[in-house]
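Appendix B, record 7
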Amino acid sequence: MQLPARDPFTLRFRSGDLEEAFRVEYVRRSMRLVRYALVLGVLIYGPLFGVVDYVNAPSFAPTAWTIRGVVCAGALGVYTFSFAPAFARWMQPALASLLLAAGLGLVLMLALDPTGENYFEGPVLIILPTYVVVRLRFAWASAVGWLVVAAYVAVVALFKDVAAGEVVSGAIFIGAANVIGMFAGYMLEDYARRQFWQARLIDQKRAENAELLEARSRFFANVSHELRTPLTLILGPLDDVLGALEDRRDDGGAQREASALAAPLRRVRRNARRLQRLIDQLLDLAKLEAGHLHLQPRRGRLAPFVRGVTESFAEHAERE
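Structure tokens (predicted):
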């Protein structure tokens, strides 16, 4: 499947209209997951790790709780904002700002922690969900991830009494986690865009097929009307001729002549009416496709049907 032209890094479609259509569809598909992720994130970031704060550093816990409270309040604000119509346009900046605040909050706890032993792993818990959980687009997620990594490395190097080797190993660890997250986020957005484009192509094909079906129905309807008019003009005089022949039965010599003429004319009338029924079926085809025609079974007699079919070909068979 050939995708439209797009930026190789941000994955944005170069067509503005196509990118806007993808943004709208992406928001629609992501909304439920985003809300679930926000609620889950508040529970984990606040109460759950608030207990960890108290267990590891009781004296520092109030400070950590203050930071967590501010971040959780922001998350609840974004959750409330998600029900507003304007959220569709501001979803990416709002989520990116929230995740950046959550990551920098953990880095701030690391900087302020007097023990110097806690919160080293915390930023990783923000980086990975940034790419794979909250439906943040790759470009936004990458910016948040590297800002958190840079802040983490700066705090460890400037505010923590650790050896240079530990700073380097910590930077490599969190940087590798961010690169893994980038790869996952890139693939997820690439898949979302491919799925969007495939669905768009399917919709286009479905619309084209609907137009073809409508054109076919119009064609059958027009042809049927064009055939029905001359056929009606044939049946009318034919019925008049057969009626006149029936009136001549009282005359002996004319009766034999009338009977000889009436037999083939009746076959003509019978086949003309059969053709008329076929034309009516063509007209019913449009009703059938529109769902306005339903099956109406009824009883019939097989013998007269077979007799009528065979009589229609009797004269032709005799000539052969």
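Remarks on this record: The CA atoms of residues 302 and 308 lie 10 Å apart. DSSP finds eight helices and no strands in the chain.
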